[in-house]
Amino acid sequence: MSKPTSYTKDQLYGATKGVKRTYINKATKNEADARISKVQAYKLIAHKLKLSSDRSLWKNNDSEYLSTWYDKLIKDIDDILLNNQSIISSNSKDTLDTNQKSNYLEIISALEKRVENLTIENFELRQKLLTK
């Protein structure tokens, strides 16, 4: 039989809900660190439960609950990230109308001219500085 835990089931459920909420929100916002490893998740839960180490989470009666909780978390995060990717790809397939294309082309050509003028100006100023 396992050693009794220093936390209640309600505290464990609260800690796992908090971690899940954090990472679901990160996935919804499409943040780069939305995925979490099992070790990271257990360390966060242990910290929320004020445990000195996450080792006890791996070896007590709650390990089965935590394992299934983690699997569901990863599945939910993957679903959200996949959904975000499909939304992004469908938005990128939208075609620009001809006015938008011509406006973008005008802006690009104006910026290219400006860069060219600044490059020439920079070169001339360097020449003046070197000749002094």
Question: Average pLDDT, to the nearest integer?
Answer: 84
Residue windows where pLDDT falls under 50 for at least 5 positions: none
Structural class: mainly alpha
Total count of domains: 2
Fraction of residues in helix: over 70%
Summarize the main sheet.
none
Question: Which quaternary structure do these chains form?
Answer: single chain
Q: What is the gyration radius calculated from CA atoms?
A: 27 Å
General form: elongated
Run of helices and strands: HHHHH
The overall strand count is 0
- DSSP strand content: under 5%
Q: Count the helices. How many?
A: 5
> Distance between the terminal alpha carbons, to the nearest Å?
87 Å
What does this structure look like?
- Residues 101-128 form a coiled coil.
- Keywords: Coiled coil.
- By secondary structure, this protein is an all-alpha fold.
- It has 5 helices and no strands.
- Helix 1 packs across helix 2 (38-48) and helix 1 (9-28) packs parallel to helix 4 (63-92).
- The protein starts with 8 loop residues before the first helix and ends with a helix.
- The model has no long low-confidence stretch (mean pLDDT 84).
Write the layout of secondary structure elements.
Layout: H1 9-28, H2 38-48, H3 55-59, H4 63-92, H5 98-131
Nutshell version of this structure?
Keywords: Coiled coil. This protein has 132 residues and is mainly alpha-helical.
